[in-house]
């Protein structure tokens, strides 16, 4: 029986700032004056006009000694060395692949930075170049690490470890890069039965936990077996929880996703996306996180 | 197994928000938010001459505008093609004689009639445009208030049209037979209702059917590059009829609820 819910719109309540941890944040909008003091150096996101330092993006002001910069809340991904990213192959070129990672320029994955199947270490030959399409095609999803950043801001990726490589069956959620918290590891196996990769570029990959860890082989063979219903329910619930956290602008890390999952268990999966249920779950998550901190 | 990526079943709609009377200088308007899809419909009733082949009926004119706010692809003239395609689909859906009582829109046969200009504005594209558009059009037609006019005969025989002074003296349209569009997208071996953008990208063929509240089909259209098996078309039609009926019931309930709140209703509008 089809379930169709229609409702009259309700005016959104302004969410008060969560209890301040360590001082107020100085939030600015484009055009706001940050300071009229001329002793400061201007960093990213600011410009000088008539001896005033003005913000050019919407975000929080960060001050390091004499450097003032504005860190934007919603931007494209800016690559930093060592970040884990999840990307989609858009082009196969001569000795490299172009990967889309929600940044200003397409990222690059060089053939020499890619792990060959079986983990072999050898010089890439002409045959490898011709066989590039066998490894990764247009439309494939990969997890990789940022090796270096070019001068124009383009990011160079590498998959030189058995934990990176082509991703198999799962669900992709695209969020703003500023909502993913920087942590030691971005690959998490959640106790609820699914695994998640929190890409620094805002691409979150949720997939069923593989049973045999050692059968990775560089991750080129995709497992196309149908995923059991119970796993799919867990993944759908996690996906809805991530969307709920993002809508309420909460930082994404393994603990917050897990608490949100536990808070959502009494509700049906499809109800999580209703505005009032979303608010309730995220409020509970926020409360638990605050209790955890102090 | 009846589970989609966001936890819905194959026949479940996303949560919809409907509000009417959002644009004050129209005869009727409605705004529908279906997930990430946002549609605004405004209806203006103007006097015009009836069409030659139907001298004692008024008519509806549809225009769909794809706002550049919806997606970057609609910048400049990018949205025109999609807009004309949607408008043509709407003409086809409403081409059936019983959908709207066009005879009530007639003032003077062969001379004057009401023309309802239905303008649809796409504010955000989040998949499943036509369903949302048809819900919004039905809600806007329910909300439309056409002023009552009287025709006065002069001694010389020339006719004058007099508009009543009372702004609340108007005729409302009967929307019981207005159809709603249900889009069924084929993904793999199953078909789903209310596809999101990602689901639309995965489906090769869809069936658009317009259903009235009594379950009668008024039109059917197949879209997409892929092919559909005749058996799956029958299944999709049955699903569409079932879903269409519940859609009408839910929509009528919400419209009646809104109506019962009367003039004291707090309008949320666009800044809510």
TrEMBL record, chain A:
<comment type="subunit">
    <text>Component of the RNA exosome core complex (Exo-9), composed of EXOSC1, EXOSC2, EXOSC3, EXOSC4, EXOSC5, EXOSC6, EXOSC7, EXOSC8 and EXOSC9; within the complex interacts with EXOSC4 and EXOSC7. The catalytically inactive RNA exosome core complex (Exo-9) associates with the catalytic subunit EXOSC10/RRP6. Exo-9 may associate with DIS3 to form the nucleolar exosome complex, or DIS3L to form the cytoplasmic exosome complex. Exo-9 is formed by a hexameric base ring consisting of the heterodimers EXOSC4-EXOSC9, EXOSC5-EXOSC8 and EXOSC6-EXOSC7, and a cap ring consisting of EXOSC1, EXOSC2 and EXOSC3.</text>
</comment>
<dbReference type="InterPro" id="IPR036612">
    <property type="entry name" value="KH_dom_type_1_sf"/>
</dbReference>
<dbReference type="GO" id="GO:0071034">
    <property type="term" value="P:CUT catabolic process"/>
</dbReference>
<keyword id="KW-0271">Exosome</keyword>
<dbReference type="GO" id="GO:0071035">
    <property type="term" value="P:nuclear polyadenylation-dependent rRNA catabolic process"/>
</dbReference>
<dbReference type="Pfam" id="PF15985">
    <property type="entry name" value="KH_6"/>
</dbReference>
<dbReference type="InterPro" id="IPR026699">
    <property type="entry name" value="Exosome_RNA_bind1/RRP40/RRP4"/>
</dbReference>
<keyword id="KW-0698">rRNA processing</keyword>
<protein>
    <recommendedName>
        <fullName>Exosome complex component RRP4</fullName>
    </recommendedName>
</protein>
<comment type="similarity">
    <text>Belongs to the RRP4 family.</text>
</comment>
<feature type="domain" description="S1 motif">
    <location>
        <begin position="80"/>
        <end position="160"/>
    </location>
</feature>
<dbReference type="Pfam" id="PF14382">
    <property type="entry name" value="ECR1_N"/>
</dbReference>
<keyword id="KW-0539">Nucleus</keyword>
<dbReference type="InterPro" id="IPR012340">
    <property type="entry name" value="NA-bd_OB-fold"/>
</dbReference>
<keyword id="KW-0963">Cytoplasm</keyword>
<dbReference type="GO" id="GO:0000467">
    <property type="term" value="P:exonucleolytic trimming to generate mature 3'-end of 5.8S rRNA from tricistronic rRNA transcript (SSU-rRNA, 5.8S rRNA, LSU-rRNA)"/>
</dbReference>
<dbReference type="InterPro" id="IPR025721">
    <property type="entry name" value="Exosome_cplx_N_dom"/>
</dbReference>
<dbReference type="GO" id="GO:0005730">
    <property type="term" value="C:nucleolus"/>
</dbReference>
<keyword id="KW-0694">RNA-binding</keyword>
<dbReference type="GO" id="GO:0071051">
    <property type="term" value="P:poly(A)-dependent snoRNA 3'-end processing"/>
</dbReference>
<dbReference type="GO" id="GO:0034475">
    <property type="term" value="P:U4 snRNA 3'-end processing"/>
</dbReference>
<dbReference type="InterPro" id="IPR004088">
    <property type="entry name" value="KH_dom_type_1"/>
</dbReference>
From TrEMBL, chain B:
<dbReference type="InterPro" id="IPR027408">
    <property type="entry name" value="PNPase/RNase_PH_dom_sf"/>
</dbReference>
<keyword id="KW-0007">Acetylation</keyword>
<dbReference type="GO" id="GO:0034475">
    <property type="term" value="P:U4 snRNA 3'-end processing"/>
</dbReference>
<dbReference type="InterPro" id="IPR020568">
    <property type="entry name" value="Ribosomal_Su5_D2-typ_SF"/>
</dbReference>
<keyword id="KW-0694">RNA-binding</keyword>
<dbReference type="GO" id="GO:0071038">
    <property type="term" value="P:TRAMP-dependent tRNA surveillance pathway"/>
</dbReference>
<dbReference type="GO" id="GO:0071035">
    <property type="term" value="P:nuclear polyadenylation-dependent rRNA catabolic process"/>
</dbReference>
<dbReference type="GO" id="GO:0000176">
    <property type="term" value="C:nuclear exosome (RNase complex)"/>
</dbReference>
<dbReference type="InterPro" id="IPR050590">
    <property type="entry name" value="Exosome_comp_Rrp42_subfam"/>
</dbReference>
<feature type="domain" description="Exoribonuclease phosphorolytic">
    <location>
        <begin position="177"/>
        <end position="242"/>
    </location>
</feature>
<dbReference type="Pfam" id="PF03725">
    <property type="entry name" value="RNase_PH_C"/>
</dbReference>
<dbReference type="GO" id="GO:0034476">
    <property type="term" value="P:U5 snRNA 3'-end processing"/>
</dbReference>
<dbReference type="GO" id="GO:0071028">
    <property type="term" value="P:nuclear mRNA surveillance"/>
</dbReference>
<dbReference type="InterPro" id="IPR036345">
    <property type="entry name" value="ExoRNase_PH_dom2_sf"/>
</dbReference>
<dbReference type="GO" id="GO:0005730">
    <property type="term" value="C:nucleolus"/>
</dbReference>
<keyword id="KW-0963">Cytoplasm</keyword>
<protein>
    <recommendedName>
        <fullName>Exosome component 7</fullName>
    </recommendedName>
</protein>
<keyword id="KW-0698">rRNA processing</keyword>
<dbReference type="InterPro" id="IPR001247">
    <property type="entry name" value="ExoRNase_PH_dom1"/>
</dbReference>
<comment type="similarity">
    <text>Belongs to the RNase PH family.</text>
</comment>
<keyword id="KW-0539">Nucleus</keyword>
<comment type="subunit">
    <text>Component of the RNA exosome core complex (Exo-9), composed of EXOSC1, EXOSC2, EXOSC3, EXOSC4, EXOSC5, EXOSC6, EXOSC7, EXOSC8 and EXOSC9; within the complex interacts with EXOSC2 and EXOSC4. The catalytically inactive RNA exosome core complex (Exo-9) associates with the catalytic subunit EXOSC10/RRP6. Exo-9 may associate with DIS3 to form the nucleolar exosome complex, or DIS3L to form the cytoplasmic exosome complex. Exo-9 is formed by a hexameric base ring consisting of the heterodimers EXOSC4-EXOSC9, EXOSC5-EXOSC8 and EXOSC6-EXOSC7, and a cap ring consisting of EXOSC1, EXOSC2 and EXOSC3.</text>
</comment>
């Amino acid at each position: 029986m089809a379930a169709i819910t229609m409702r009259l719109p309700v005016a959104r309540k302004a969410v008060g700032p969560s209890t301040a941890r360590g001082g107020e944040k100085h939030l600015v909008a484009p055009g706001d004056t940050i300071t009229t003091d001329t002793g400061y150096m201007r960093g990213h996101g600011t410009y000088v006009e008539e001896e005033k330092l003005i913000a050019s993006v919407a975000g929080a002001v960060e001050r390091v000694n004499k450097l003032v910069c504005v860190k934007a809340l919603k931007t494209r991904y800016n690559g930093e060395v060592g970040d884990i990213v999840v990307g989609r192959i858009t082009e196969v070129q001569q000795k490299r692949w172009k990967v889309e990672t929600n940044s200003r320029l397409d990222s690059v994955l060089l053939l020499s930075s890619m792990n060959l199947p079986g983990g072999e270490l050898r010089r890439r030959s002409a045959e490898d170049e011709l066989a590039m399409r066998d490894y990764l095609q247009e439309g494939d999803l990969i997890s990789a690490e940022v090796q270096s950043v070019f001068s124009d801001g383009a990011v160079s990726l590498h998959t030189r470890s058995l934990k990176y490589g082509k991703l198999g069956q799962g669900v992709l959620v695209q969020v703003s890069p500023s909502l993913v918290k920087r942590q030691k590891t971005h690959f998490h196996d959640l106790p609820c039965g699914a695994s998640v990769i929190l890409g620094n570029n805002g691409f979150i990959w949720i997939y069923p936990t593989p049973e045999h860890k050692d059968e990775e082989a560089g991750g080129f063979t995709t497992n196309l077996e149908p995923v059991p219903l119970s796993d799919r329910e867990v993944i759908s619930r996690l996906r809805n929880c991530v969307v709920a956290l993002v809508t309420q602008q909460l930082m994404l890390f393994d603990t917050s996703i897990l608490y949100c999952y536990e808070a959502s268990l009494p509700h049906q999966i499809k109800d999580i996306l209703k505005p009032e249920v979303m608010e309730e779950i995220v409020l509970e998550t926020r409360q638990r996180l605050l209790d955890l901190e102090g | 197994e009846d589970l989609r990526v966001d936890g819905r079943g194959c026949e479940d709609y996303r949560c919809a928000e409907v509000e009417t009377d959002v644009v004050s200088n129209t005869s009727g308007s409605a705004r529908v938010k279906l997930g990430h899809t946002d549609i605004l419909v405004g209806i203006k009733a103007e006097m015009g001459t009836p069409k030659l082949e139907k001298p004692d009926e008024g008519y509806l004119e549809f225009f769909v505008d794809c706002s550049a706010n919806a997606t970057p692809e609609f910048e400049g003239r990018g949205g025109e093609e999609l807009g004309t395609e949607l408008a043509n689909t709407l003409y086809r859906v409403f081409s059936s004689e019983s959908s709207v009582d066009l005879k009530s829109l007639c003032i003077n046969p062969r001379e004057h009639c009401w023309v309802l200009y239905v303008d649809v504005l796409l504010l955000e594209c989040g998949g499943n445009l036509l369903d949302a558009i048809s819900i919004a059009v039905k809600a806007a037609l329910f909300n439309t208030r056409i002023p009552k006019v009287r025709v006065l005969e002069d001694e010389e025989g020339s006719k004058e049209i007099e508009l009543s002074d009372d702004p609340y003296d108007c005729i409302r349209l009967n929307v019981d037979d207005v159809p709603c569009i249900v889009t069924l997208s084929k993904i793999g071996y199953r078909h789903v209702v209310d596809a999101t953008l990602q689901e639309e990208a995965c489906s090769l063929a869809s069936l658009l059917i317009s259903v009235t509240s009594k379950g009668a089909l008024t039109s059917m259209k197949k879209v997409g590059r892929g092919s559909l098996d005749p058996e799956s078309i029958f299944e999709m039609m049955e699903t569409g009829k079932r879903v269409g009926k519940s859609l009408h019931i839910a929509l009528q309930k919400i419209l009646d609820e809104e109506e019962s709140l009367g003039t004291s209703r707090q309008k949320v509008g666009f800044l809510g």
